[in-house]
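Changelog note: in this version the structure field was regenerated for every chain. One regenerated record is shown below for reference.
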Amino acid sequence: MKIRKKILTLFLCTTLAFSFSSCQVQKTTTEAVTKTTAKTTKEEVAEKTTKEETTTAEVTTTTAVKVVEDYAASKVNEQGHVMVVMYHGIMDNPPYHRTKEQFLKDLQYMYDHNYRLISLEEYLSGHITVEGGMTPILLTFDDGLDTTFALKKTADGFDVDENTAIGILEGFLKEHPDFGRHSVLYFHDQTKNFGEVGTDKDRFDWLLEHGYEFGNHTATHDNLGKLSKENVIKEVGRVEKYVRSLYPNMKLTTITYPFGARPNEAYRDAAVKGEYDGVKYDYVVGFREGPSGPFVPVTHNKFQPFNAPRVRGSDGANGDLWWYFDYYEKNPSLKYVSDGNPNTLVVPEKRANTINDYAKENFEVITY
C-alpha cells in the first residue's frame, strides 16, 4: 500500500513551488488506493506490520453505507475544511491536556454534530470514507505519553488502560461504533513510549491491531527552529531509526513539529526529507500548532503540506477546538460535507476554482 501517490511531487514541485534538490515522482494511482482492503484479524495485522511500507492501517475505500443523492439539500462540499485536532494526554493541565470529562465532552460534541473520525491515509489521499452528510475530522496525539495510551495486564495478556485518551476513545466507540476508530499517535525515540507495561513492541502492536497510526514528533522535542541542519536531521532521523528497529519495513509519512516550529528556511526541507545513520525519511505532511493556514483538504489548491494546521484540543481560546466548533456552527458552508463516495469530489459550482490538478487526475469531479 502506497499512500504517497503523486501528492508529494504535485504539491512540493508544482502547486507550492517547494524547493527540494530533486523531485522524484512516486506514482501510485487512485486504483491502488481504492483496492486496499482492511485487515481485521490479529494474525493479519501482525503479518501486515512486518510487510507494509507505512504505519497506516489499511482501509477499505469502497462506497460508504450512505450516499447522498441530493447534493444541494445535504449541502455537500468536499472542498470544505477538515479539522485536525492536536491532543496530548489526560490530565488537568490546559490548554494542551484534557481531563476525562473534557475529552468525552469533545467526542460527544463531534458525534452529535456529525463529525466522524478519519484515518491519516484518508486525510493524505483525499479518499474519505465517511457517510454522506458527515464531516471528517482527524485526531492526533503528541509526545508518546502514558496518559495518551498505556497497557494494563490481563489474564489473556494486555488491554488498553481505560483511563488514557485511547482507552476513553475505545469506550466511546463501544457506544458509538459508527464514529470511526482512527487517530494518529506522534512520539519520540525514547524507550517506554506510552508507559512501562509491556514492551515498546507490545504497546505498538496493540495500537496497530486496533487501527491506530503513527508519526514522528522528533527525538527529544527540541525546537527545530533553533537547531542547525545537522541537528534537525538527527532529531527527525532518530525517530525513524527507532521505528525501523521495531518494524523494519515501516516508513512514517508525517511529522508534527515540536512547538509548531519549523527549521530555518535555508534548510527547512531537512525536517521532511533526509537520511540519518543510514535510514532515510521522506514525509508527505508536516503539521504545525494552531491555525497556521486554512483547514482545506489535499484536493484544494491552497493545501500547504508542510504548513498543515492543527487546532489545540481545548476550550475557549481563539483558534482552539471549541472556538472552531462555534465558528463552524456559524459558518456551516465552510465545512467539508461528504457525499459518501470516496472516489468522487462533489463541490458547489462556486468553489470549482479551488480544485487542484491532483484532484482532477484522481477523482471524478462533480459540481452542482
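Spot check on this record: The domain at 7-367 is CATH 3.20.20.370 (TIM Barrel). Confidence is low (pLDDT under 50) at residues 1-5, 9-64.
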